[in-house]
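Re: that backbone. Tokens:
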């Protein structure tokens, strides 16, 4: 965390020293037991590669609907505090004073849209503000929504609509390039989305511009209470319409990515078994759809990893019966052996309980050439881990459009001490001129990262 020289710096205690000593190294990339390290080892540029073999066996006997640690304490930042970023970059305050700022999206004309989930508003910053050097002031594009989150522009090049996913519905507003206020009332496309537990609904437009994806997280941690047993014949009939591995009961149409026509019709499950896909991102170079997933909480402090996965039509990603490929959840042992060989393994594993929220692919030239094509992912930070992890933005390294599995710290310094933080990254977007914007929903600030 960068702060003025006259202000005392927070002291970071090296809680992960033993894990780092014991680590197995591949070049400068942390692997082996080092992937279990906590926040005290974080610093811009530090890379990490979590492999399935690095993940220990889960704890057993924990209540599947309870976390194993308490909530983090959010404190006010000291005057002038800024997060740490790599050498050659600079972080500044882009805007502040918000209540739970979450998703950031850049419109085709360069305007920046923000879902201020805590007020039910969607805000917009004009492109000139995004390019400026002073804190920006937004206008209200839309309001009176239940925890707005996902934002998408349709068509992608010259949009006529802004789509917004609130906790309970998906709507669209008429829009023309440069509009700072919706030019008409909201049209509801998908209504009555259940809001129990996970409420972050993200959106992504298909590459051909004909369909919209929406993510809907689960109603529980593991579904043990809300999914009554069904016979094999009942399961077969259910999956014929809802997809392999689709949950039922109160979890019906939850823990999924759904797809629908642009007018809201023909909605169906596109991918299943995703406990909470809180971030969707379309990859410019390939047209692949990627999901940022919060995994379950009850398997211990190091199990199971959050992840970034390519989303395929008809694919099943494990929840609630399996995790990390075909590893069975001990709380549901023997329930669905038929699914074991059909669980798709994620491409990138993040430390367990990082609370990965959002992603954006970097497709500009303002940062060094090696960044082009990589992804930035916001890790909101752990609750279910005594020694905290997350509370940072990481860079996911790509090669030829495919993840290498390695990610490295990019923006850190939000942790004051274990159990206490002054910032929680939530949303990420890239401005028209190639800067990175990061929303912090703990103290209501948006940071801007530029190359010096």
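Recovered sequence:
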């Amino acid at each position: 965390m960068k702060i003025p020289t006259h202000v005392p710096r927070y002291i970071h205690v090296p809680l992960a020293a033993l894990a780092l000593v014991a680590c197995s190294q591949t070049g400068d990339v942390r692997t082996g037991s080092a992937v279990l390290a906590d926040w005290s080892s974080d610093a811009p540029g530090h890379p990490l590669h979590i492999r399935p073999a690095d993940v220990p066996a889960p704890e057993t006997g924990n209540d599947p609907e309870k976390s194993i640690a308490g909530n983090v304490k959010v404190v006010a930042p000291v005057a002038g505090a800024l997060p740490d970023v790599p050498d050659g970059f600079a972080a500044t305050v882009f805007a502040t004073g918000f209540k739970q700022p979450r998703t950031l999206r850049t419109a085709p004309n360069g305007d920046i849209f923000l879902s201020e989930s805590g007020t039910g508003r969607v805000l917009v910053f004009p492109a000139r503000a995004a390019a400026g050097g002073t804190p920006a002031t937004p206008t209200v594009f839309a309001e009176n929504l239940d925890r707005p989150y996902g934002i998408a522009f349709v068509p992608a090049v010259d949009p006529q609509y802004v789509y917004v996913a609130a906790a309970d519905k998906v709507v669209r507003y008429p829009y023309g390039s440069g509009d700072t206020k919706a030019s008409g009332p909201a049209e509801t496309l998908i209504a009555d989305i259940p809001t129990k537990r996970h409420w972050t609904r993200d959106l992504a437009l298909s590459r051909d511009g004909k369909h919209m994806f929406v993510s809907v997280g689960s109603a529980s941690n593991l579904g043990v209470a809300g999914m009554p047993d069904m016979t094999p014949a009942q399961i077969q009939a259910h999956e014929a319409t809802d997809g392999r591995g689709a949950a039922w009961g109160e979890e019906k149409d939850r823990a999924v990515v759904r797809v629908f026509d642009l007018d809201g019709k023909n909605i169906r499950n596109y991918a299943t078994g995703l406990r909470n896909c809180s971030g969707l991102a379309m990859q410019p170079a390939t047209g692949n759809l990627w999901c940022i997933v919060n995994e379950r909480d009850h398997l211990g402090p190091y199990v199971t990893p959050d992840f970034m996965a390519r989303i395929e039509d008809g694919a099943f990603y494990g929840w609630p019966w399996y995790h990390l490929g075909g590893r069975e959840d001990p709380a549901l042992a023997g329930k669905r052996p038929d699914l074991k060989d059909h669980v798709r393994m994620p491409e990138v594993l993040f430390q367990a309980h990082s609370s990965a929220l959002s992603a954006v692919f970097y497709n500009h030239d303002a940062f060094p050439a090696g960044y082009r094509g990589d992804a930035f992912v916001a890790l909101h930070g752990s609750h279910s881990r005594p020694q905290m992890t997350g509370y940072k933005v990481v860079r996911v390294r790509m090669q030829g459009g495919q993840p290498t599995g390695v990610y490295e710290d990019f923006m850190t310094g939000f942790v004051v001490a274990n159990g206490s933080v002054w910032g929680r990254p939530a949303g990420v977007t890239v401005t028209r001129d190639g800067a990175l914007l990061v929303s912090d929903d703990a103290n209501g600030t948006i940071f801007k990262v530029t190359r010096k």
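The mean pLDDT is 92. Residues 232-242 form the longest helix (11 residues).
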